[in-house]
Design a protein that fits this description.
Order of helices and strands: HHHHHEHEEHEEE
CATH topology of the largest domain: Alpha-Beta Plaits
Shape: elongated
Strand content: 15-25%
Largest sheet: 4 strands, antiparallel
Number of domains: 2
Helix content: 40-55%
Strand order of the largest sheet: 2-3-1-4
CATH superfamily of the largest domain: Lrp/AsnC effector binding domain/regulation of amino acid metabolism (RAM) domain
Number of strands: 6
């Protein structure tokens, strides 16, 4: 396999492979893990190139990739790299008010999902906290949008803004070599 596709992630591929093999146990085999590693770094790779990387036929590479995607284990999508677009992004930790009905929490999450300025919604195990990642062109605009969305809502007990300085790693991928200037 061509190591350049994996080395450019900045992640030790053998250590990552061993980790993935241990957590996926028997549900993913060697080829599944290698397909993930390759697509994580280069989601636009063709099935022909994928087959070459894997050392298998195009039909096998396509069938295995498609199975991982059909089972929704892999999502090959375009991700907006906010720091490279010079966007401001803020993680907002939202504490849900006590004794909220699950239906009200679900409605709030659905509203957050539909908000075009919210890049990510993460619900935590205790069901009383969420992380909303907002993005916008400048800090003033993002503060206005966050406050418009969260202030004076019965469901929101409190929220804490964490403006991001940079994200050296996201989606299990190194985004910028920290030793190089932008």
């Amino acid at each position: 396999m061509n190591d350049l596709k994996l080395e450019s992630t900045g992640i030790d591929k053998e250590e990552e492979y061993d980790f993935l093999k241990s957590i996926f146990d028997d549900s993913w085999d060697d080829m599944d893990i290698k397909i993930y590693q390759i697509l994580r770094n280069e989601g636009r790779i063709t099935d022909t190139e994928l087959a070459e990387e894997l050392g298998t036929s195009i039909t096998t590479a396509r069938r295995r990739r498609t199975k991982l995607q059909d089972n929704e284990y892999l999502l090959v999508v375009a991700q907006l790299n906010l720091q490279e677009t010079d966007m401001v992004y803020v993680d907002v930790l939202v504490e849900i008010s006590n004794n909220q009905e699950p239906k009200k929490i679900d409605e709030f999450i659905e509203e957050a999902i539909r908000n075009v300025r919210i890049f990510e919604v993460t619900q935590y195990v205790d069901n009383n906290q969420l992380m909303l990642r907002f993005f916008e062109e400048d800090l003033s605009s993002i503060n206005n949008h966050i406050n418009d969305f969260l202030m004076n809502r019965e469901i929101v007990k409190d929220y804490n803004l964490l403006p991001a300085a940079r994200s050296p790693k996201a989606w299990n991928r190194v985004l910028k070599d920290l030793n190089k200037e932008k």
